[in-house]
Amino acid sequence: MAYRSGTYVAFHAEGTSDPTESDMKYYRLVEAWKNNENLEIKFINSHDKANAVRDTSLRRTLEDSLLERLRNSKNLLLIIGETTKNDQDWIPFEISRAVDDYKLPLIVAYTGYRYLFPQHYHPVNFRSLWPSSLARRIDDNSARVIHIPFRKEPVAAAINQFGVNGQVPNTSLDYYISNAYSNWNLFNPLFDRT
Question: Can you give the pTM of this predicted structure?
Fold first, then answer.
């Protein structure tokens, strides 16, 4: 069994290698956070640990490479934007294998939000953004998921907190409470009202 220490980052590339036209820009931002020595977000990127393959590689070669990366991962960070639910190819593959085969906890990070918790944005309110493969595993509670905004502080906290070798979210609809967002300076109860 491989030592599972990496974080697998999944995002909808929309069939393009141009980061300005897809959620690849968020993946690049995660990489920038990780590589910035002045920021306190450190993790092993599972994509850096496996052999690179070209977009023109055969599907089976791509699948094998992704599976190797998933096998070496402790969690999966799924970046959800407006078009993620439209991916009928790689996102469903990554979610199903991560949850069903490798029992990885999922960190679902929604772009465009400062905080997520029941008083404001409960995870079920984002159902319209979920790919069907994620919705199915949330509905049957087979996935262990923490729902967070795509912000540096909650991403770093979730990556460090949740992993297959340790703590996992209790349910498929877990979230951080308002105090966590206050500590990260993402929520001020005096100004941010329901």
Answer: 0.86
